[in-house]
């Protein structure tokens, strides 16, 4: 019996199935098993296949979690009918995925769109339009992959998330497509922000993020920022920031005061080979709990030693073992600090 027919026969026996994870390594199956779309009671579907999701996926009206992984690493397009899946809460897409704008009546009709969607991973940046965001008004977490924009659209190209009033976390990947942070319009509710890849933002752009009053985590990785000096002005204050991560940046000089990060708890530096010094004034940040250095310069570790001593002088004693990391000059040094 052909495998597709066998699959259909198997699924026909499980009409009340609610959870399904389907993975098959055989090259013989290159079609999405359409019988799955008849499993009306499905709440959770994880599928690994060669092809795009069919339009009939919208028949799964009770589906809440959709996870798709494709064998071939190529971009994919979601069917427009996916906007009819009003109970979706989480959608993880294994490849860069294009989500078409909902039809105009999809926004007007309260029964259309995906009002319950809170988490969407794998969206291409060209799908980040006002029309798309208006169809997912309660989105909280989003992963975007930056994709090329046509020349005629470039001047007016923005990713405007200001309408997402419940939005909390954004992660952006970039594959050698430099841009400015002015292309992003963030909602004030944003708490976690990560840029990974060759955005090549100037450090002045990063300083503008102080305008996000609820930002608690900021991660800049793998050439996300271009420039050797980050100089923060007295008025530049990341009031709510608790976690700051730099990884794979060519930062040499970092000029900031303790007032720039008054509530910082954790600082993580990875592969910052050129950094000459962590701002010594960080020794006065009373909330600081740990500084982690992974494959950074010895000069950066030396400044962490000074900061640790200042913390100890304030009564914020480091945990046992921190001195050993300093003495060994380990390429992966962790300097924890414990608050009283």
TrEMBL record:
It comes from the Eukaryota. Residues 1-21 form the signal peptide. Pfam families: LRR_14 (PF23598). InterPro entries: LRR_dom_sf, LRR_R13L4/SHOC2-like. Residues 10-294 form the Disease resistance R13L4/SHOC-2-like LRR domain. Keywords: Repeat, Signal. PANTHER family: LATE BLIGHT RESISTANCE PROTEIN HOMOLOG R1A-3, TUBULIN-SPECIFIC CHAPERONE E. This is Late blight resistance protein homolog R1A-3. The lineage of its organism: Eukaryota, Viridiplantae, Streptophyta, Embryophyta, Tracheophyta.
């Amino acid at each position: 019996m052909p495998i597709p027919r066998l699959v259909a026969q198997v699924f026909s026996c499980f009409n009340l199935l609610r959870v399904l994870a389907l993975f098959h390594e055989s090259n013989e199956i290159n079609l999405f098993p359409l019988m799955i779309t008849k499993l009306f009671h499905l709440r959770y579907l994880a599928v690994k296949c060669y092809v795009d999701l069919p339009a009939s996926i919208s028949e799964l009206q009770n589906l809440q979690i959709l996870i798709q992984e494709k064998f071939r690493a190529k971009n994919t397009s979601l069917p427009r009918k996916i906007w009819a899946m009003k109970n979706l809460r989480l959608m993880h897409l294994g490849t860069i995925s294009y989500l078409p704008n909902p039809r105009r009546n999809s926004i007007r009709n309260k029964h259309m769109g995906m009002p319950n969607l809170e988490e969407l991973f794998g969206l291409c940046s060209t799908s980040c339009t006002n029309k798309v965001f208006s169809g997912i008004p309660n989105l909280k977490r989003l992963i975007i992959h930056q994709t090329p924009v046509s020349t005629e659209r470039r001047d007016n190209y923005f990713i405007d998330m200001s309408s997402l009033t419940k939005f909390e976390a954004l992660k952006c990947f970039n594959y050698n497509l430099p841009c400015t942070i002015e292309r992003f319009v963030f909602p004030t509710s944003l708490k976690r922000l990560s840029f990974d890849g060759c955005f090549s933002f100037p450090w002045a752009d990063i300083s503008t993020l102080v305008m996000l009053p609820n930002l608690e985590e900021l991660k800049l990785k793998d050439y996300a920022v271009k420039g050797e000096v980050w100089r923060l002005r007295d008025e530049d204050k990341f009031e709510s920031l608790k976690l700051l991560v730099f990884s794979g940046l060519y930062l040499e000089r970092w000029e900031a005061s303790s007032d720039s990060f008054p509530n910082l708890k954790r600082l993580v530096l990875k592969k910052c080979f050129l950094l000459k010094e962590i701002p010594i004034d960080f020794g006065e940040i009373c909330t600081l709990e740990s500084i982690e250095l992974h494959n950074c310069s010895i000069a950066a570790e030396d400044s962490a030693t000074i900061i640790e001593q200042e913390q100890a002088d304030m009564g914020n004693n480091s945990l046992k073992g921190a001195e050993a990391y300093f003495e060994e000059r380990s390429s992966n040094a962790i300097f924890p600090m414990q608050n009283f």
